Amino acid sequence: MKLRSAEWFQGRDEIGPQSRSVLRTLGYSPEFFIGKPIIGIANSWSELNNCNLGLRTIAEAVKRGVIAAGGVPLEFNTISLGEELMKPTAMLYRNMLAMELEEMLRANPIDGVVLLCGCDKTTPGQLMGAASANLPAIQVCAGPKTPGRWRGTEIGSGTALWKYHDQYRTGELSEAEWQALEACYSCSVGTCNTMGTASTMTSLSEALGMMLPGTATIPANDTRRLEAAEQSGRRAVEMVREGLLPSAIMTRHAFENALRVYTALGGSTNAVIHLLAIAGRLRVPLTLDDFDRIARETPVLLDLQPTGARLMGDFDAAGGLPQLMAELRDLLHLESRTVSGRPIGDHLPEPGQAMQSVVRSRATPLQAIGGLAIVRGNLAPDGAVVRTTTASPSLLQHRGPALVFDSYAEMLERIDSADLPVTPDSVLVLRNVGAVGAPGMPEWGAIPVPKKLLLQGVRDIVRLSDARMSGTSSGTVVLHITPESAIGGPLALVQDGDPIELDLLNRRLTLAVPTQELERRRATWQAPARKHTRGYLRLYEEHVLQPDQGCDFDFLRPQNDADLVFVPPVVGRS
């Protein structure tokens, strides 16, 4: 077996001694590391990201596994993407993480890598970078947090916050009660314990074959998570020896499996963008139509917030992802390879063994048709996304007048005004908040139901935007409208009072305004001025693709098969 790292450590010219001296500085003898696989541990730990705080301990467990298997672990840090503190959104920096990881793997003597992920954008960013580097890679997640309890009820991350915030806005909760909720809202490290974006993406990483089967759902404070980390370290060494690469795991069949799982989970809408971006790095054909087709064929089986009632600990206790996939067995490509070295079908138990109150059987689904719809029409020519599992049945077919907000700041300023001209039939429109417009496409799409309507008992209203929303949010919300308004998409032409028709059953989103009038408006439309003149944000605005292509950078997606070849550095004098 020829190791990539040998070019650094086994050379006899000045490069060899120079490289070996680096590891000797760590206290490693040449006998410990010469001729052994070097396993990078890409750690996204940060005190700015509570989801990932447990990754320091997990990294130590990974190191044990690497050493036990005859490898040499070398830990390095990457940017940590925490959705709570990063503004306007961690999504703005997902591509930066992918670039950083790819270049760290390219530039350093690394034979394989263990990816330590947690909060929403870390998981897809790492998979994008690993796909482009195409060195043996395995992912380990931080795990979902332990739920706090308030008023005797377990608190679901995100989902409970949005619910109780509406009660706080209308005076149903006092300031003291609101503060008491805050104190127990996040009582442990780890990711959201609902089926938000973090849990959706770690589940999909496992479904793609990039995590050891059964490990995505283990709670953050469960000692089995450390065991899984140790096993992943062992497998990283073995994968180097086997030559098992991400491109051999994340195939078209693997993505089809992931889409089945995504639908059955009732997962976050953000996963649509992330899966498209990961597939794009490997030139795997994947489109919005694939999501819609598989959603029509696959039921929702997981009773988990915000679609259902349970939390991630219950999912893990019910058998986790392998048990859910067992219920889909006849719909999956069971031969798809995983980081275990074995096909996914080898890891599935018999169906019907789960707690039926959490993982439903196909005979008794939570929802007979999948939880996602891709809508198109003159308002979204290239598509928009709706999480149907959390939409109100009464609003699945709806026509109402538009109420337009030109910015997020304007929406916040007006949404609770007593004189806001809104009715339950109104369609709220938020624009200039997409990938280019914001920039970064923040989770602003779940526009709050206006206070005026909340006081009337209205809890849902149709909302449209070119933004995203948190995977823990709910409501009848149309997202990712493409092309976005800031680059001249039809959303830019909507005016207050325009009739808008949403028909989820027929997958249509229509601005009921004559074509001639829309052409007149377009003739006078002017693009918003770009917000940034330098740095990464200028690069982002100039090169980010639209949501139907995963919001990756245009120059990071391979244009042909030759671009898929990993180009190693020239190992010579620095």
Secondary structure layout:
Elements: H1 6-9, H2 15-25, H3 30-33, E1 38-43, H4 55-68, E2 72-77, H5 94-107, E3 112-117, H6 122-133, E4 137-141, E5 149-150, E6 153-154, H7 159-169, H8 175-185, H9 197-208, H10 223-242, H11 246-249, H12 252-265, H13 270-281, H14 288-297, H15 312-317, H16 320-327, E7 372-377, E8 380-387, E9 397-405, H17 408-414, E10 427-430, H18 451-454, E11 462-465, E12 477-479, E13 499-503, E14 508-511, H19 515-524, H20 535-543
Helix pairs in contact: 4-10, 5-6, 6-13, 9-12, 12-14
Features:
34% helix; single chain; 12% strand; Glucose Oxidase, domain 1; globular; alpha/beta; four-stranded parallel beta sheet; 574 residues; eight-stranded mixed beta sheet
Description:
With 574 residues, the chain is α/β, with parallel strands linked by helices. The chain has 3 domains: 36-146 and 188-347, no CATH class; 149-187, no CATH class; 373-524, Glucose Oxidase, domain 1. The protein is 34% helix and 12% strand. It has 20 helices and 14 strands. It has helices at residues 6-9, 15-25, 30-33, 55-68, 94-107, 122-133, 159-169, 175-185, 197-208, 223-242, 246-249, 252-265, 270-281, 288-297, 312-317, 320-327, 408-414, 451-454, 515-524, 535-543, and strands at residues 38-43, 72-77, 112-117, 137-141, 149-150, 153-154, 372-377, 380-387, 397-405, 427-430, 462-465, 477-479, 499-503, 508-511. The strands form 3 sheets. It has an 8-stranded mixed beta sheet with strand order 7-8-12-11-10-9-13-14. A 4-stranded parallel beta sheet has the order 2-1-3-4, sandwiched between helices. A two-stranded antiparallel sheet has the order 5-6. A hairpin with a 2-residue loop joins strand 7 (372-377) and strand 8 (380-387). The longest helix is centred in the middle third of the chain and has 20 residues, at 223-242. The radius of gyration is 24 Å and the shape is globular. The two termini are 27 Å apart.
